[in-house]
Amino acid sequence: MAGLRTLFGYFMSNTAQQLLHDVFGYSSFRGEQEAIVAHVSAGGDALVLMPTGGGKSLCYQLPALLREGVAVVVSPLIALMQDQVDALKQLGVRAAFLNSSQEANESREVTAQLMRGHLQIVYVAPERLLMESFLALLEQIELGAGIALFAIDEAHCVSQWGHDFRPEYRKLTVLHERFPQVPRIALTATADAPTRAEIVERLKLEEARQFVSSFDRPNIRYRITQKDVTQKTSARQQLETFLEHEHANDAGIVYCLSRRKVEETAEWLKSRGWDALPYHAGLDASVRNKNQRRFLREEGVIMVATVAFGMGIDKPNVRFVAHLDLPKSMEGYYQETGRAGRDGLPANAWMAYGLGDVVSMRKMLDSGDAPEERKQVERQKLDALLGFCESTQCRHQTLLRYFGEQHPGDCGQCDNCLNPVDTWDATQAAQMALSCVYRTGQRFGVVHLIDVLLGKTNVKVSQFSHQNLSVFGVGKAISQAQWSSVFRQLVAGGYLMSDIEAYGGLKLTESARPVLKGEAEVWLRRDVEVVSRKSSKAERGARAKEGYAEVSDDPLWHALKAKRMELAKEQGVPPYVIFHDSTLLEILNRKPASLTEMSQITGVGQAKLQRYGDAFLAVLEDR
Questions:
Q1: Which pTM does this prediction carry?
Q2: Same domain, 411 and 473
Q3: Least CB-packed of 40, 161, 168, 367 within 10 Å?
């Protein structure tokens, strides 16, 4: 215990700035971090909204070291607990977790460490925390070694309108009721104004100081491409073109809506030579864990997954997130794309999007068992996402506006800014499309409607005598691909909706009336034709990453990564727990020649300097 008291004395006798450098290896705070740390360390409650990769964890980890007692972190994510504890141990911090993945003897040992005052930070699942026996244990600890603070991570889980509602989070008010003197800090990366208000209400944080950081992720390049409606190129082929040109050897996540599509896409990518793995709730737990472990601990693995994967994954060098299906909301999209580029280096958020996505997502929402009030909220959230997809404005600007934040636009980091969108007066085309929907009885899907407008004579057109309608053949001046774009944008714009009872047939909304009467104009974006260019294996890897592209062929870069992987395998931890890519990049660029110089590298604290400094200096000397 003498050594433990000395360690605690070191933490308590140092300032936040000293600990930031000596333990975490950073020379300065980012954004609101310093103010948050000071507020919580002084015993204040806080609600922290900070984007993924913005440094939320530091906002409770550093106060945990500055205050007496153990910090209790509530997290719904088993994978995140393991990652965070591994990373903290590398820094010399005494940390542990308690969750259902542990054997009984492991849980007993962690509990014993808690009772002895041995731990500085412990992560627990909300279900474990809410057990009466565990709450009673915490009351004993409060009387003994003390409780430094409670951190409630992923706080948006408390909101029934959020994208990841967890009922047990509603019961976390017990912390305020039974431990009123212990400061609480609730943290989330994703919360619009209504969700934020619900977090405050449900967690009894009315007196808490709110810290709202910018939601902007300037290192992420947002791109949305239209799916090839001619089916000459599948969405998977569009994805592969994107990967070949920019992410040949990178780790990334591909999101799909269904389990079946996840497995089919993973198999297809594997057949094309990519190191791809599936992840969804229907897989055996051992397979899911194995695949997740490979993704975390190996380089260049692509995880194809449903949204069940990713929340809390602390892998900093995910270089891309791709969507082959439309997410349900802007919050979901922001949360999922935010898993890219957590290390601050350039990353891509790419999505292929088409009319079928709009129809199927609306059908899914309308056919569920949720109360009508819930459905209405979900429809509004989906409409906001559709508006984002079809917007001709800066993606960063549109995304931030949704979260109540202003952005000047012209970001240079999205498709609309890099390639300004061409718009056209589509009023006449919209009138043709809407009239075709009306005259065919508001019961047919887009393929048949386009056939009628193009004047195609086929079995279905003849079956319903639609060749006799006034709209038959009136749209021959517009291509099939452009008509598909018109219908997609009319659905996204709320002029048309999918009729569930008519098996997805389109019908008019009230917004269509003024257009048909000539009282309103319709301007639509002109889609760029989808082009797929095959590239050889030798061409893969030509990535446009400022300050990062040139390292892909640098032997020293590969030597540093190889040393990191060697050390990671020895300890059974992911490579990024040793050093982030951004730290390796700084080592590569600055080439420190001594431990003193190495200690000035961002991300190299005292514990890591002692453990790894000589090993990486040796790599530099050999080159």
A1: 0.76
A2: no
A3: 367
Residue 553 DSSP code: G
Q: Compute the distance between CA of residue 485 and CA of residue 476 in angstroms, rounded to an integer.
A: 15
Whether the per-residue pLDDT at 391 is higher than 90: the answer is no
What would the mean pLDDT of 392-414 be, rounded to a whole number?
89
Of 418, 448, 467, which one is at a domain's C-terminal end?
418
CATH number of the domain to which 578 belongs: 1.10.150.80
Domain enclosing residue 486, as ranges: 423-525
In the predicted structure, residue 544 carries a pLDDT above the cut 90: no
In this predicted model, what pLDDT tens digit does every residue of 431-476 receive, in sequence order?
A: 999 999 999 999 898 889 999 999 998 999 999 999 999 999 999 9
**How much is the average pLDDT of 367-387?**
77
Which neighbouring-strand residues pair with 320? 252, 348
Same domain, 285 and 399: yes
> Which CATH number is 118's domain given?
3.40.50.300
Q: 550 and 613: one domain?
A: yes
> Closest Cα to residue 477, out of 467, 486, 489, 465?
486
**Inter-CA distances, 478 with 68, 432, 446, 450, 454, Å:** 71, 11, 15, 10, 8
pLDDT score for 231? 62
Do residue 256 and residue 206 come from a single domain?
no
CA dihedral sign of residues 250, 252, 256, 258: positive
Q: What is the CATH number of the domain that holds 435?
A: 1.10.10.10
Residue written as token pair 């453990």: 611
Please indicate, yes or no, whether residues 510 and 555 belong to a single structural domain of this protein: no
458 and 411 in a common domain: no
pLDDT (tens digit per residue) in 159-168: 765 556 788 8
Long-range contacts from 271-277, C-beta under 8 angstroms, 24+ separation: 272/240, 273/537, 274/240, 274/243, 274/302, 275/300, 275/301, 275/302, 276/301, 276/302, 276/303, 276/304, 277/301, 277/302, 277/303, 277/304
Q: Rg of the Cα trace of the chain?
A: 27
End-to-end CA distance of the chain: 44
Residue 193 in tokens: 């104004």
Phi and psi at 238, nearest 5°, equal -60, -40
Give the model's pLDDT for residue 171.
92
Residue 185 · residue 107 · CB < 8 Å:
no
Let me know if residue 535 belongs to a domain: no
- Looking up tokens 């990518």, which residue turns up? 269
Domain match, 41 and 182 both: yes
Among 155, 180, 212, which residue terminates a domain?
212
Look at residue 540 and tell me if it is in a domain: no
Q: Residue 537: inside a domain, yes or no?
A: no
Question: What is the C-alpha separation between 612 and 292, in angstroms, rounded?
Answer: 26
Residues 575 and 477 placed together within one structural domain of the fold: no
For residue 163, the model assigns a pLDDT of 56
* Per-residue CA distances from 481 to 254, 355, 407 (Å): 26, 11, 33
The CA-based angle 210-211-215, given to 5 degrees, is 130
Q: Kindly give, in sequence order, each residue whose CB lies less than 8 Å from that of residue 195, ignoring residues fewer than 6 positions away.
A: 156, 159, 161, 162, 331
In a domain, 521, yes or no: yes
State which amino acid sits at residue 146. Answer: G
